[in-house]
């Protein structure tokens, strides 16, 4: 599937920063923000040709759905009925399947806001799409604020009960080059959901005394692919969930969200088969900080309310990536 120039919408602010969003996958393809010397750099991994996004399997910058992250054994039961999904991460289901929302053509329209330039993207996902029940109307609004913050607001409604966990999947690299292994990561959470090895078992364990304690800034671990339980998870209330800093550029990114979980994925499966802006996307060349409901929540009784959407309700998910510079 190819893309035309009209399929990409550019958001700008008075500081010179800009973001480019493609309708294919509601994808953030480029985000240019200044370093400590005022030089712009692209802090997300992207492809030069928007038409190439259909041929890659790394979910670069995409909006994943209906359910981001993994569902164990590609199966769930809701209201007494069992649904089988595509096992595109055998034996599990990942990010809505190989033809999930990251491969859909969304409809875009410019939006005027007091905070900055914005674009709204909408998608109608029919009943049975990807094996999921119900017709869902999904919406994503990207706003680039005057203060160099990228706000991503996701919402959805349904006509039948269905699981929803929309996930924004950008790979960030604040140096705009090299790997993220020298980045300093802070996570505002005291626990994580261990897996066997990847899909959470349904337990919550403290990070204290483990390699996953990022309560103070620490270098990114190359094999990170874990869901963290973020502090003070009050539905609908945003709070800081993570901070990433690169000493080379001076850039700091603070992540604020209203979601209970944060999947931290250090790009260990990137293999150099994709590239953009003159750099290959090699292992650890970007890090995903995916605000979300807990992985496999639909199959864990104590977590399932995080993801079940019913008629008359509205799923909402807000995340803000704020960029500042310092030492």
CATH hierarchy, class: Mainly Beta
Shape: globular
CATH architecture: Distorted Sandwich
Structural class category: mainly beta
Overall residue-averaged pLDDT value: 95
Provide the CATH topology. Beta-galactosidase, Chain A, domain 5
Are there runs of 5+ residues with pLDDT below 50, and where? Answer: 1-5
Query: How many domains?
Result: 1
The span between the termini is 43 Å
The level of helicity is: under 10%
Q: What string, H for helix and E for strand, traces the elements in order?
A: EEEEEEEEEEEEEEEEEEEEEEEEEEEE
Relative strand content: 35-45%
Fold topology:
Layout lengths: L7 E5 L5 E5 L4 E8 L5 E3 L19 E3 L5 E2 L3 E4 L2 E4 L8 E2 L12 E6 L3 E10 L10 E10 L3 E10 L3 E2 L3 E3 L14 E4 L3 E2 L12 E2 L11 E2 L5 E5 L9 E7 L5 E7 L3 E5 L9 E2 L2 E2 L7 E5 L15 E2 L5 E11 L2
Antiparallel strand pairs: 1-2, 2-3, 3-4, 5-15, 6-9, 7-8, 10-11, 11-12, 12-13, 13-28, 14-27, 16-19, 16-21, 17-18, 17-20, 20-23, 21-22, 22-28, 23-26, 24-25
Features:
five-stranded antiparallel sheet; 327 residues; disordered N terminus; nine-stranded antiparallel sheet; 0% helix; mainly beta; Beta-galactosidase, Chain A, domain 5; globular
